[in-house]
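Quick one:
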Amino acid sequence: MPDGAEWARRALASLLERVSVTADEAGERFPLYAAADPDGGAWKTTSRGSWTGGFWAGLLWLRALSSGVPEHRAVAAACTQRLRYWVGQDTATRGLVLWYGTALATGPGGDAAAGELRDEAARACLAAYDPKWGLVPWGDAFGGPRLLARADGVPGLVPLLARAEEVPGPVPLLGRASGGGRAAAYGHLTRHLDLCLAEDPPRPAWQARPGGGWTACAEPAPGWSRTVAWLLLGVADGLHWLGDDGLWEAAGRLAALRLASNAPLVPPAQGGPGHGPVDTSAAAIEAVAALKLAALARAAGDGQEGDRLADRGRLILRRLAEVHQSPAGALLDGCYDAGRALAPRHELIWGDFFFAWGLAVLTGLTGPFTM
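Output:
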């Protein structure tokens, strides 16, 4: 077992058993969140998956990789194809949906249809890149202003845009103007880093002004648990897919906020006064980002930093397994939206996914980066 231990193997097995229970309950719908219950709560589901559908497909692929059961593979493949609707939707969350829904399916000997969907998504995301603003806009698929930059519009889009460089087919006009997929990925990532890290604590959302420039958005508010988590994930993928060592400075700034030894292993859902709920989903994302950065640091010859980051990721995952995982395997105590009191202490599908992925890395089931 490469970096893991028996506790990680047990936690992953329990979580994947929960995936099987959820699959029976959800059918062809997509699970979103479930109330906390030691025996597994009932899921709130959606017909198209919203911005989280890719995480459910990713969990099904992790189950298939672990079990080797052909039926599990068929279920994962069918779920992935139900994500195709999102290729044509105007939303930066296509990165969350279409990267995480396909990445675990497209390695050597993987699912060809999932690979085709990923390539189609890469072309669509590159076509949506706006060189004037230096990013793929947040979009209007979920309502509200279209020209937003949000931290949760970073992860997944970086590798999708970077892969668009290699995808056969016509190059979109906007993609050509931007210099291609790698240039678009770099522009998208660094625009978000420049904006979000312009304030302390980082501000997760900004709106473009008609005459140029950006205005800070009130929601999500600074101190939101997943701001740094999503950015850390995006930077790690940027270092891997773009090979730009200049991104290590941003990685260091973000790591100092959330991966330092004195930072809580599980962050509050919303920083600031008061004692609200924690957010285990943010912790799980941070753990995966730490394992990715650890692998990159070691590859760059910095074994000491690699060991520090790997230890931090492992500590987070062990805390989640020992304190926040239910007997039924669910990762509890995730907070969907503290401000609206929406699912504040729940099992969240993306929390389960990143928890499972982190455990899969520790136990050697998969690597920190996927093709």
